[in-house]
Design brief:
Keywords: Glycosyltransferase, Membrane, Transferase, Transmembrane, Transmembrane helix. This protein is of the alpha/beta class. Among the domains are: 144-183 and 195-274, Immunoglobulin-like (Sandwich); 278-533, Spore Coat Polysaccharide Biosynthesis Protein SpsA, Chain A (Alpha-Beta Complex), CATH 3.90.550. It contains eleven helices and 29 strands. The strands form eight sheets. Strands 14, 15, 16, 17, 18, 19, 22, 25 and 26 form a nine-stranded mixed β-sheet that branches. Strands 2-13-12-8-9 form a five-stranded mixed β-sheet. Strand 12 and strand 13 form a beta hairpin. The chain is globular and about 90 Å long.
Length: 542
């Protein structure tokens, strides 16, 4: 009996404890439910999301002291010397150096240079005049953004980059070039016994004022004597970019940029290309490709021009965001054949220049391939070169051999008028095959495109070069021209919007005339593509 009473007493005590601790038990049960759910979810996650002891080790280890880097957001260091007196003109030098080592501490504090001076305040002068204070913060644009640098001869180099447009429009920035030869072993450290060579850089502004926040600058560095390095050869080209008080007359900031590092082997390779016959007869330098491009139009353009240019030709394309997977499928067969090289230049979109920085891109292409081609072409992927039936591209180019540069006449084509006989089957025809009506309105100055012999060109533009050695001619009518299908390259729809059954028609005040020059060659181009790369692109979409 007493045992039953004791059990009843223990049961009541347990119930009382549970009742008094109900809130705490709720939290406990909730926590257990959450942990069980988390363990269940982790079992279904990919391994890259799983946790291990190595993931928790940094949290448990003692923190390391952060590394202070005086630099911009890139992994470079910089040294800057400044005077503390704001009232006097201050000279500052920023020297860019190599990226930090891979095993460097991950905690990095980035400090801007120069350090901001103490805030100035308004003052009341003795004569009662209030002298107002102006305190600058931040930086509106970079002094110079390096894209590339190339040797152009025994004593000359070209440096391509972007620079602040207001600085060049309203200031007087300057550039100095310095060649620092390596020592006998070719090592960068052995330069103390070598004599660096310095010369003034000649800046060339190639975009004719079209720049936006940034403008394109080509700096020509021509030294008084050949620069070949010391010992086994090699050296580095430094570019000293000075603002000369532009932006703030109290400061003359000079950035030292390591534009080019050249080994002895690099110099040997250059000399071989420099002295040899050009590898290509014709090389195409394309502008920035951007937007939602039509794979079919790109397919047609490539097949047509590779057939026209022949086996000793090459095409350099630049992807500024326009080479999506569909376009890449069209480029790949020709890349595998060695006809096309693609450059990814999407990073330049960070810097606000004209038309996806196309002036910068074409100048890089010019100097990168300057000694690899006899002739270099500059036009767009909605433009098709054409030579009359009784001529070939070779005979036309040979007729201009005495000129460094010649421009090409434009034939503007309608991007929506098609023949009525193609109705219902136009989707099976190529763009240049079915768009056959030419704008014949007179009295209009139309843009031209151009061709150069690159060895005689220092810098270039989009419609022509103004920095050449030798003669230029614009009298090319009847010998070579280009058909311009404006807007079709970025139109993913069927281009035929209106069917016409006449040779001449006027629409919206613009007279058009039938021109079947390109239509006639379409069959030859299709057979050429099939012969070269097979049927891999037969199902290409608009």
């Amino acid at each position: 009996m007493s045992t039953e009473k004791e059990k009843e007493k223990e049961r009541k005590m347990f119930v009382g404890v549970v009742w008094n601790c109900a809130a705490e038990l709720k939290y406990l049960l909730t926590a257990l439910l959450f942990l069980c759910s988390l363990v269940t979810i982790l079992q279904f996650l990919p391994t890259r999301f799983s946790l291990s002891a190595s993931d928790l080790r940094p949290c448990l280890s003692s923190p390391t002291a952060p590394t202070i880097v005086t630099a911009t957001a890139t992994a470079t260091t910089a040294t800057v010397s400044l005077s503390e007196d704001r009232n006097n003109t201050t000279n500052a030098t920023t020297t860019a150096t190599a990226p930090a080592a891979a095993d460097a501490p991950t905690d990095v504090i980035l400090l801007r240079q120069p350090a901001p001076p103490a805030m100035e305040k308004d003052q009341v002068l003795e004569n009662g005049i209030i002298k107002r204070a102006f305190n600058p913060f931040g930086s509106a644009a970079y002094n110079f953004i390096l894209m590339s640098a190339y040797r152009g001869g025994p004593n000359t180099f070209a440096v391509m980059g972007l620079a602040s447009k207001p600085l060049h429009v309203f200031g007087k920035p300057s550039y100095r070039c310095q060649w620092v030869p390596f020592g006998g072993s070719g090592a960068e450290e052995n330069v103390e016994n070598q004599e660096p060579i310095v010369t003034d850089g000649q800046k060339i502004l190639t975009d004719w004022g079209y720049g936006r926040v940034y403008t394109v600058v080509v700096v020509n560095c021509t030294f008084s004597a050949p620069v070949i390095g010391g010992g086994s050869g090699g050296g580095k080209l430094l570019l000293h970019a000075a603002t000369n008080g532009g932006g703030d007359t109290n400061f003359n900031l000079t950035d030292t940029i390591e534009a080019l590092t050249e080994s002895g082997e690099d110099l040997k390779n250059f000399n071989q290309v420099y002295s040899a016959k050009p590898k290509y007869d014709y090389l195409y330098c394309g502008s920035s490709l951007y937007g939602n491009l039509s794979p079919q139009r790109v397919r047609e353009w490539l097949a047509y021009h590779i057939r026209l240019f022949g086996g000793k030709s090459h095409f350099v394309m630049h992807d500024a965001g326009g080479v999506h997977p569909g376009v890449m499928e069209v480029l790949r067969p020709w890349m595998e054949k060695g006809y096309v090289t693609l450059h990814d230049i999407r990073e330049q979109e960070r810097f606000d220049g004209y038309y996806h920085n196309q002036f910068l891109v074409v100048n890089d292409c010019l100097h990168r391939h300057r000694y690899m081609a006899k002739w270099m072409f500059f036009f767009d992927v909605d433009e098709f070169l054409f030579v009359p039936k009784k001529s070939t591209l070779k005979t036309v180019m040979d007729s201009f051999s005495e000129y460094t540069q010649f421009t090409i006449e434009q034939m503007p084509m309608s991007n929506k008028l098609c023949l009525a006989e193609d109705a219902g089957k136009s989707y099976r025809k190529w763009g240049f095959e079915k768009l056959v009506y030419k704008d014949v309105k007179r009295g209009i100055r139309r843009d031209r495109k151009y061709v150069v012999q690159p060895r005689n060109v220092f810098a270039t533009g989009v419609h022509m070069s103004q920095n050449t050695v030798g003669k230029t001619t614009h009298k090319t009518e009847g010998r070579i021209m280009y058909f311009h299908y404006h807007g079709t390259i970025a139109d993913r729809r069927e281009p035929c919007r209106r069917s016409v059954n006449t040779t001449d028609i006027t629409i919206d005040g613009i007279p058009y005339s039938l021109d079947t020059s390109m239509r006639i060659v379409a069959g030859f181009v299709k057979r050429f593509e099939l012969k070269m790369i097979g049927s891999v692109l037969q199902r290409t979409r608009q």
